[in-house]
Amino acid sequence: MSGGELPMRKLEIDTWERKEIFAFMSALSDPFYTVCFNVDVTSVYEYTHRKKLSFYYALIYLATQAINEVPAFLNDIKDGEVVVLDRRSPSFCDLREGSEAFYIVDMLMENDMDGFCRRAKEKSLAQTSFYPKDKPEDEAWIYFSCLPWIDLTCVTNERDFDPDDTVPRISWGKYVPRDGRKKLNLSIEVNHRFIDGFHIGQFGQRLAEKIALLG
User: Could you give the C-alpha distances from 60 to 7, 163, 190, in angstroms and in order?
Assistant: First the structure.
């Protein structure tokens, strides 16, 4: 994926299968909810250690790929209209060794995971501000964070409350040994106006498939 204006198309509400669900959820004062589920990341761990890549960046790449393969996650609202995005890109928290102050890094996807991991490391190390000064205004994001110090069970996120906020927020904790495998809990926060449990299930399945391909 490259930069530039983000392609999108208008969604025809009248023929939209979830028209009534969207209307029902749009009347709620708080349409956001969180789901947390377990992910086997053994193959990610082994692949990144073998290739000397960042486990964190690799899982961001795989999760972004999985999100972009589930059409419901590409719905958004622009100028009051529901649109279908061409893609979402990762915006993630990072932390330098010896520091307690995190910062936010934006990335566009590379064609392969190894290239993405190397570029993410370079961009993260080069960044000198908390927030990207050149953040593209027209890009659609997925927000990522990680708490590698604890076996995470669930997490919520800060936000300026906006019912039109469609940005998925994905977090995970440290991987822990279970049944001879390495597993972690992944938390995803979404807008129920667009995303149901069915779609989160699709995301989880796509992610598991992509991880399995590394084995």
Answer: 22, 25, 17
pLDDT band per the 50, 70, 90 thresholds, residue 136 = confident
pLDDT at residue 215, as a whole number? 82
The alpha helices in the chain, defined as continuous H runs, are 19-26, 42-51, 55-68, 113-126, 197-212
Q: Are 167 and 141 in contact (CB under 8 A)?
A: yes
Does the global pTM surpass 0.85? yes
Burial class (CB in 10 A: 0-12, 13-18, 19+), 146: buried
The rounded distance, in Å, linking the Cα atoms of 64 and 67 is 5
Q: Which ranges of 52-196 does DSSP label H, i.e. alpha helix?
A: 55-68, 113-126
* Residue 197: exposure state from Cβ atoms within 10 A (0-12, 13-18, ≥19): exposed
What's the token pair of residue 143? 């927000």
Task: Give the tens place of pLDDT for each residue, 163-174.
Answer: 999 999 999 999
